[in-house]
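Q: What structure does this chain adopt?
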Amino acid sequence: MHSERTPQGTPGRNQLLVEGLRFVMCTKTLCSIDTGYYADTVEWCPVEGFEDYLVCGTYQLLERNNRDDGPEATCSEECSSVGNERIGNVQLYCHDETLGRLEKLQSFETSGVLDTKWLPGSLNGHAVLGAVTSDGELKQLVESTSYITSPQKLCLSMDWSSKDGNSQVVVSDSAGQMSLCKFNEGTSKLCQILQWTGHEYEAWITAFDAWNSAIVYSGGDDCLLRGWDTRTDCQKPTFTSKRHDMGVSSIQCNLSYEHIMATGR
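A:
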């Protein structure tokens, strides 16, 4: 499964593709959907009973052309952000395997969506989706609530942890900061419990350790991969890796073998 972007200036060609594995390294396109705005993130729901649900988060920059009073859509991020607007939405689909198509169930308009993640388990019988946006918000869409973790900054990445029955979420932002939030006891409202500076530039990615929910990893535009122990004040990383020659934008822990993870740009 992947999203496909078309060259700059070609409208109406943003495609969401769902693919099924036929043979090793071979895929088959099952269906294709035009998402309108650029498809930035896609996530299948992992919660039992909701495995056929797919969410797509979109992001598009509306550049205000000085020669034209109206906004002009563009995918360029190199232009100045002054006077521009970042828009997007969260689109919920259900995959009908019998008919071989995606049925669009709902679309929630918001600012640009940079990342989405499903809570690994259900909350009060509901599948919970988190989304981070270009206006610095962490949105919990099942309850239609939001929490501003990074005012005046872009939230870039998020990850859930639900070990030992305690659900937490970590968010990284464009100022290199990390924010750790949890649910208030007995409620589905999020509150921030820790915030720290992890990188000199943008913190592109963050993730919990799959085997130890107290450990958080982060990757930044400063080419550093870092580990953090959230049982401390996180003023110093547990380790810093300088092996990357470009910004670190992807982290994935191995779910079968402890102490192994993949990182990349």
